Amino acid sequence: DTTELDAARRMFIEFFKERHGHRVVPSAPVRPRGDPSLLFVNAGMNQFKPIFLGTVDPRSEMARYRRVVNSQKCVRAGGKHNDLDDVGRDVYHHTFFEMLGNWSFGDYFKEEACAMAWQLLTGSYGIPRDRLYVSYFGGDRTLGLEADEETREIWLNIGVQPNRILPFGMKDNFWEMGETGPCGPCTEIHYDHVGGRDVAHLVNSDSSDVVEIWNLVFMQYSREADGSLRALHQHSVDTGMGLERLVAVLQGKRSNYDTDLFTPLFSAIQQVFPHAVNRKIACSKVADKSKVDMAYRVIADHIRALTVCIADGVYPGMSGAQLVLRHILRRAVRFSTEVLKSTPGSLSKLVPTVVHILVSRPTSLRDRHLSIMDIINDNEAQFLSSLKQGRRVIDRTLQNMNGSTVFPGSVAWSLHCHLGFPLDLLRLMVEEKGVAMDTEALDRLALENKKVRAQTQASEHDSCVDLDVKVLPELQGLGITYTNDLPKYQYSLG
Ligand code: ATP
Ligand code: MG
Ligand code: MG
Ligand code: MG
Predict the structure, then answer these.
(1) Where does 198-319 have alpha helices with state H?
(2) Domain parsing of the chain, residue ranges
């Protein structure tokens, strides 16, 4: 029930506020303000970037922050931290999740940060010590970065067994916000969901038996545009713990989807989608050939992301964060129509359940669920109509291919640009017909697209530019023309 969730969240906030003098700061919206280096807020520290970098306006309230605690809405789809492809495949990566965090801006450093984290987990939350492992930065010789032996010592002094303190390299234990920005070595706490054996080898593997729950970053550098590391004016602490993973630990569940944050959504999916069967095995190792389990996870995850993003003013669209959101929506629609055989309008019916689960979150959610549903329905209808049109174009192309078994890249590219088909979807649709995609031609067009975009200074995340001069003649050769009545493209099959 949701009160238990609130309790887990509240315990974190209260611990740092009441016992360790932190100031509570509200979550920022998921769309970062004034930071073009980010598509979405990907960590609790984003809103504090100017403090780390020393660029904060000295007259602002933020300039006085020393110890801060918060729970931040995060989205990791696109940009440096992009988990979209993992979502649904595993049971602990989401596109939208909540990150609990505490910060020290030039105040306490490694020793206190580790001690507090350990005290909270093993004391307040009562997590058994013999289920926890910690990692620290093992250094990087080529970059001239030393191993963080200090942190290893700190964990030993706290009483962690030496075989549970593990060094890792840049990928896992040197945290960076984006291509540029604050960064530094980190120490992480991992939870063993099984117990009773040594699983040090599973830390930072892809196993769902041992999952990273909390990251404590020691901010010491800024990654500059030229790739170099610049030492920051002061040492800071930046931590982040995923609420969904914490709740899974506290509720003794192997999968985030088996916790109170998701089970009401699974029930709603079962009710809303007429042919769905509730497999109830969000964490099953049983083969999921029909992808029903995966569909449950993808839909439950994506509807949360859609609801929160739209509430924060990011609508599905054609570039940047909006394009990413459109991709999320289309992925959800595909799983709901193709796997769960839904009828149009089903997806949006899940929105009230999302709002109910996240009810203690900002009011923008509670007040706006009807308009959020409308936006989802409109976009779903648009995609379904594109799918229909796309299928007809694909069929017509197949008829006119004169025995070739390679699907022309020009047609695929056109559908991608004009109807917004994700390329991976097109490939699947074509392969289902027993034909291979001309990926070479597609790669060529993508490269060209990149060049044109660079010339016009369009952003990396803009949807593709028109390469009509290239693809039109080929399409006509296949008996396909289209009219470009922006914003709508209409294909006609001659
Ligand atoms: P992982 O290695 O599991 O991908 P990460 O190292 O990328 O996680 P951090 O950047 O260290 O994650 O973020 C801090 C914490 O936020 C993690 O320890 C985890 O609890 C949580 N977290 C990160 N990514 C996700 C996600 N996609 N979904 C849910 N929780 C996440
Ligand atoms: Mg990650
Ligand atoms: Mg990690
Ligand atoms: Mg991490």
Answers:
(1) 243-250, 263-272, 292-311
(2) 2-250, 262-382, 400-493
